[in-house]
Amino acid sequence: MKFSNCVLILALILVSASLRSEVTADDVAKRPNIVFVLCDDHRFDCLGIAGHPFLETPHLDQLARDGAICNRAYVTTSLCSPSRASILTGQYAHNHRVIDNYHPVDPDLVFFPQHLQAAGYETAFIGKWHKGGEIDDPQRGFDHWIAFKGQGTYFPDGRGTTREVPQTTYDGLNINGKRVPQKGYITDELTDYAIEWLADRSDEKPFFLYVSHKAVHSDFVPADRHRGRYDDQPLPIEVPSVSEMNAGKLPMWVRNQRNSRHGVDFGYNLKGFTPEVYYRRYCETLLAVDESVGRLRQELADRNWMDNTVFIYMGDNGFQFGDHGLIDKRVAYEASARVPLIMTAPGRIPSGQSFDGLIANIDIGPTLLEAASAKPLDEVDGMSVWKPLCEADAGSLEGRSVLYEYLWERNYPQTPTMHALLGTRYKYVRYHGLWDRDELFDLQNDPGEMRNLIDDEDQAVRVEEMNARLWEMIQSSDGNEIPILEDRGSTYPLRNPQKAPQASFPDEFFK
Q: What are phi and psi of 492, to 5 degrees?
């Protein structure tokens, strides 16, 4: 009897395993392909469809018309490596602990592409990895790997640059562990590699392609075919005067940063720096990225994959071009923390959708895993927004807010540690470890964030409530402890003696 029972049980197990195997194979065949394109430093308003006065982005505009353009997309840390780590892990920087551009990701952290692999996906990473400084070795979660060290370079000979940014490298590409020279303009070359990989795919397994552009990271170098296109265009950004910054009650550190490496008075320590010229080159550099999106989508169309492909385009952070007297990023202002996010999924995400629900970079992994019917990540701070997008239901995200954080870097001492609440009409920013003002802005009536209401008596209760909410979010996500990592890289503390003087303490501090 015992032997018979064992035989019966074994038979049931084999049948069950066989059925699971058949279901799994069928499920795998039905899963959508996924293409995720990440652009470096792409601010939210630099799109033709966003109403830009001269920038031409026809392929991104068409992408938005074919799916959803997400009007309230943010990153939770406006800095390359932390933001990219948040995309891969679904976690805030204080949890994944990549808080600068010099330290690698903890080897025990799980990336969402690993779950796609487990769900039967073929995966590829092509482009800028930029976590851990000079690291470009093949990483977990990817079957195919093409990357470069640090920031790489637009052209292999470095031509067209006015300065070499930190972590610029000329070592070519790491292709599946083999060093290969860079041949041409980096945006075009990465796109070529992506299309080459797509050409080797079949319909037997779904794929996940992650194209991570160097562009449009400074120093901005457009492709030769685009250089000079916008030479005569004005800067469509209002650069405030010192007196306007004072009148708006901006913190001392913001007024002081104006005359620093990351300010308009001393931009990157370059003689004769002007945000107008820098902005024109930035827009010209974006043109090749737009063309890249068009080429990738054309390849999908040529292979009849468009109808079964989720296509996502996103910026890893924004960029300041004189907003608040600043350049670069890191800050919680809209120009720095808000990014373009466009998603298409024919038959799933309604086309022509202008989606106003709050979405953050920590939501990308959870969202794509749900779209792929893959196992969710175990430890995340973000959430899936797949159903709200598919149902065109921004109202389901009403009242949501996310935490913004930036942790002070010795390399760039101009910008302090800060935490902020993103996603509501009012933005509250708390600065940590310095003798200065915090900030409160009414984004509805002051979209440029130039009237700080933090000391307005009528806002006292709101400030108290938002401070309590901020701490609730910090504590609920285990953010009470700030990671402190050893110093790496150069520091840039210089000021221009001929430009804006040192800011004074606020009048309300003198009592």
A: -135, 75
CB 321 within 8 A of CB 327: yes
- For domain 32-509, the question of CATH label 3.40.91.80 is answered with no
Residues 88 and 111: beta-carbon distance below 8 Å? yes
CB–CB of 332/418 below 8 Å?
yes
Burial annotation 150-182 (CB, 10 A radius, 16+ → b, else e): bbbbbbbeeebeeeeeebbbebbbbeeeeeeeb
pTM, full prediction? 0.93
Q: 407 near 98, Cβ under 8 Å?
A: no
CA distances from 171 to 57, 153, 157, 180, 228 (A): 31, 9, 11, 8, 28
Torsional sign, CA 55, 60, 62, 66: negative
CA 80, 151, 163, 161 torsion: positive or negative?
Answer: negative
Nearest C-alpha neighbor of 33 from the set 344, 378, 436: 344
What distance in Å separates the CA atoms of residue 128 and residue 38, rounded to the nearest whole number? 9
Model confidence over 255-312: pLDDT tens digits? 999 999 999 998 998 888 899 999 999 999 999 999 999 999 999 999 999 999 999 9
